[in-house]
What we know:
By secondary structure, this protein is of the alpha/beta class. It has helices at about 15-25, 75-85; strands at about 10, 30, 40, 50, 65-70, 85-95, 100-105, 110-115. It has a single domain, classed as 2,3-Dihydroxybiphenyl 1,2-Dioxygenase, domain 1 (Roll). It has 2 helices and 8 strands. The strands form 2 sheets. Strands 1-4-3-2 form a 4-stranded mixed beta sheet, with helices on one face. A 4-stranded mixed beta sheet has the order 5-8-7-6, covered by helices on one side.
Amino acid sequence: MANQVRFFSIACDDVERARKFYQAVFGWTFEDWGPPGFYLIHGAGLPGAIQKRHEPLAGAASASFELTVGVDDVDEIARKVAAAGGAIVMQKSHIETVGTLIYFTDSEGNRVGAMKYDT
């Protein structure tokens, strides 16, 4: 299908540290695949990878997309984030008719959302 996200990648300074973080927070598993330091992510609901961060072009700001993960319990995820070395950067907030959301930074400084979607 055209114009639909089919794959995502999480950029990391320390791939092993990031793998441990996402395993602890979301229970994702990883498969060594492709170039060194490149792992497929299993369990995220969408094909993805975790890999070493690419160097930005000289003088260019680093840019990224924001990822939001659907979860069953935002409070539980917040506890797991803190225990795994991440930091909550936006406390729990309810968006009417959508769900309850937090934002956190992972072990690599990437900003990630976790939302318990309303039914």
